[in-house]
Every structure is written in C-alpha cells, then in structure tokens.
Amino acid sequence: MASFSLFAVLLILLFAARSNASRLYPTSQESNKETNLSVQPRLLQGLTDTSENNGYVHFYAADHQMQGEYYGVSVIMDVYDFLLTNDQFTVSSVKIFSDEGDAIQIGWEVHPQFYGGDSSAHLSAFWFVKTMKTADGYQYACFNTNCSTGFQPEAGAPIALGDVIEPVSEPHGTKQNITIKVIKDSASGDWLVYYGFNRPDPTLIGRYPKSLFTNGLADRATHITIGGYVVAGNTGLVPMGSGYLPTNDSRSMAFSNIQVIDQSGKASLLIHGFRGYTTPYSVSPMINGEFFYGGPYRTTM
Ligand SMILES: *[C@@H]1O[C@H](CO)[C@@H](O)[C@H](O)[C@H]1NC(C)=O
Ligand SMILES: *[C@@H]1O[C@H](CO)[C@@H](O)[C@H](O)[C@H]1NC(C)=O
Ligand SMILES: *[C@@H]1O[C@H](CO)[C@@H](O)[C@H](O)[C@H]1NC(C)=O
Ligand SMILES: *[C@@H]1O[C@H](CO)[C@@H](O)[C@H](O)[C@H]1NC(C)=O
Fold first, then answer.
1. 113 with 6: CB under 8 angstroms?
2. Per-residue pLDDT at 232 exceeds 60
3. Pocket of ligand 2, beta carbon within 6 A
4. Mutation test residue for ligand 1: of 36, 245, 247, 251, the one with most atoms within 8 Å of CB
5. Of 13, 73, 185, 192, which is most buried by a Cβ count within 10 Å?
C-alpha cells in the first residue's frame, strides 16, 4: 500500500511538474565536472521548492517536452542501474499523453520497492486515464501488466513488461541501449509498443488497445515527454540517467535518434524540445534528435 500511495503522489507530481518546469539552463557551477555530490546529502535542503516536502517524497525531473499532434515516437536510450534503497527510484522513459488526461509511459526503471527489493533496471511501463481512482479516491495508473485490462503482450515477444534489462552500461565503459517505439496503428487505433536491445530495429512486444482510452489517446497524443525523474525519501539524492550531469561525453546518458511520427506514419528526427528540469539535475539542448540528461550521483562505479 505504501508503494501504491507513493505512486499516486508521483503521478500528481508528474502532471503538475510540467507547468512549473524550472530554469532553462544550468549555471556554470552546475554544468558539472564530475562533482562529488554523493557526499553532500544536505544538498536536498534548499531544494524543496520543486519537491513535495512532506518528509518522504522528493521529486526531481529533467526532460524535453514537445507539444503538437503525435501518432508515435521512437527513441534510443542507454540503460543504467544503481543500488537504491526502498524509498528511492529512478526512471528514464518516454511518455505520450493528451491534454485530456490519457497517458502511456515506457522506459527503464530501478525501483526496489516495486521489484521485490531488487536494484536492477527493469523494462517498466504504465498507462493512465484521468478517471482511474482507487477506493480511497487516489488517482492511480496501471503499472506493467497488473490490471485486468491494459497492455496486451505479443505472443513470442522477447521481453515482457517488468523484466530485467541486462547487461547495463558503465559510465566510463561499454554502453547498452534500448530502442523504444510507440506508434498508433492506423487500422486498429491501438498503440503498438516495440522494443530492441542494442539494435536499431525493434520488435513488437505488445499493444495498448484503443478502447482503454477515452480522453485523447484514442485519437492521438498532444504531448511527448522524454527524459527522467527520480524520487527520493530522506536518504539523499538519487542518480538520474547515468548519474552524471549532461556534458556530451561518455559518462552522460544519451537519448538519441529521437523521432516523432505524424498521422501519415512519416517519422522525422526531432530538432527541438522544451527543456524542463529541477536542479541539481539537468538536460542538454537537443541536437539532431539527441540530448543528454541526468545528474547526481553515482553510488558505485
Ligand atoms: C572526489 O572524491 C575523490 C575521493 O575523495 C577525490 O579523489 C576527487 O578528487 C574528488 N573529485 C572532485 C571533483 O572533487
Ligand atoms: C503493480 O505492480 C507493482 C510491481 O509489481 C506492485 O508493487 C504494485 O503493488 C501493483 N499494483 C497494483 C494495483 O496491483
Ligand atoms: C546501441 O547499441 C548498439 C550495439 O552495441 C550500437 O551498435 C549502437 O551504436 C548503439 N546506439 C546508440 C545510439 O548508442
Ligand atoms: C555531442 O558532441 C558531438 C561531437 O562534437 C556532436 O556531433 C553532437 O551533436 C553533440 N550532441 C549534443 C546533443 O550536443
């Protein structure tokens, strides 16, 4: 139940965070030369302007946001994992949603509380419609496949939602990436989900039926958000992305080959997004469908 409420709070924050996405660019002090932020947990103090300072949930995000009419999106992202505690999690994902309140999010997540205490990177997703409520009135989302309706896995898919992604990248070494593509099937109206590990040609792993959505996603998405967010308890900052701030070197986590898909099915490389972030995390400008993002800190090397 604790995780459930935390997730409900997170959703509220996620939707709220868009409107008060903060400054556009890091100060020179923030645009990091590998700082030792891991030994400065007191940094959390003074950052409560953008976090829910209820003594438990601290929420931070860094992303690129797009607004328009979208029928699909495709991204490649590096994958990392971190040793986290039960009151922390970190997500790197792509989210499509509508003004009216439908959403699909998919990416990788390290979330010990959801995954039996394990700190691996998992392929994680949720879908959300505005009218979903728990018995006690919280808004909630359907996580992975644990609602009676929702994501329909493709027979023979190489991975299921919730599965561990491995191996993962090393900040100074070999990178491992996943390709995520979500595209509206013009015949059925379903949102098809494709996944690839270290390969640019992803395979169909399942779908979100059109019938799930009543508020926008039945027709198209009006927003796309690509990036990450972290939630921390009172136990210090949580790594986002690779844990390093975005400096366009091998340590920074990249989203690349970002393409948006229009109604005719035509894909085009994204050249511009609106940057939003909450310090001490950050996000680079987008260049040719690529950007870097993330921040403090790396707990193990
Ligand atoms: C980070 O900490 C290590 C170990 O204490 C130290 O060797 C290194 O110089 C520090 N780096 C910075 C940028 O302060
Ligand atoms: C959904 O799945 C997560 C992870 O398996 C679990 O922690 C959570 O309690 C589930 N929620 C519901 C509503 O079943
Ligand atoms: C993803 O991984 C594959 C296999 O290592 C590599 O060939 C490709 O360049 C990577 N793509 C990106 C965008 O990093
Ligand atoms: C990162 O640096 C490379 C090499 O200079 C450049 O081609 C690329 O556009 C840069 N990417 C971003 C997102 O700044």
1. yes
2. yes
3. 3-4, 114, 143-144, 146
4. 36
5. 73
